[in-house]
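Sample 3 of the quickstart, ligand zinc ion:
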Amino acid sequence: MRIENHRIPGIWFGQSANLGARRQNPPVIIVLHYTTGWNGAASRDWLMGAAAGAANRGSSAHVVIDRDGTAWQIAPFNRTAWHAGPSRYGTLEGLNAFSVGIEFVNPGWLKPNGLGDFTDAYGKRFSERALKKAGGYQMAPQPRVGSGSFAWPLYPEAQIATGVDLVQALVGFYPIKAIVSHEEIDTRGWKTDPGPAFPMERFRALLGEADDREPAAVVTAGRLNLRGGPGAVFEKVVPPGTLLKGTRLKIMQRQGDWAFVAPESPDGREGAVTGWVHAAYIAPVMEA
Ligand SMILES: [Zn+2]
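Result:
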């Protein structure tokens, strides 16, 4: 796929009525979703709102990808679509304005009823046989839905292949710095898409490994220890010993939960000091 005039030539295009303003800056994040349904055309029409005769006035996306790999573009990439809701990634909030939203047709979690059947988010029942026929599923817990394990229908390879093509084209054309799930950016803690059956790592890998796109980070804890190795058992690097909230860092390497960083000095220069910090207390600086 290639991108021309913020569209993918050769795939179906119809413009959703549920879009924000034309944006000045290119998108920097790709947000991946599932539709919470099996019917791709119905989801596409819903997300197009009045443009497809649907009552929906509140949500949209840029592209919907059906289970057979068919892609429908419903917003040009230079318009804001409404898919992320209240959201945060690194230092950016309200990700609709900075992102491309891709919806994969998939029903999401189904609850086992203990008798061999499963119930989806709408209360519709499916037999195990029906789920297998529809492409299979995997069981996994999701505390956001409830206790126990849920059935997550798999994503067919044709659908994933189209998604990979699309994301590759987007990464090649726009200064994309992150590929994220809706679940990880949702600040209300409700969202579960695209879920454990989605090959998220395959998509994140499209940003490239030896990539210089890993953004600078910023310290989010009040005081963060800078250590000589990747673990709390390592001595602090003194000076400075601790880094203050808001200190910008360059990330040079990651190991497990730890990051090897070079903090910037207050005058904005990268300091000569390097050390390890716990990565839970730093966040990427996202400039859009
Ligand atoms: Zn979503």
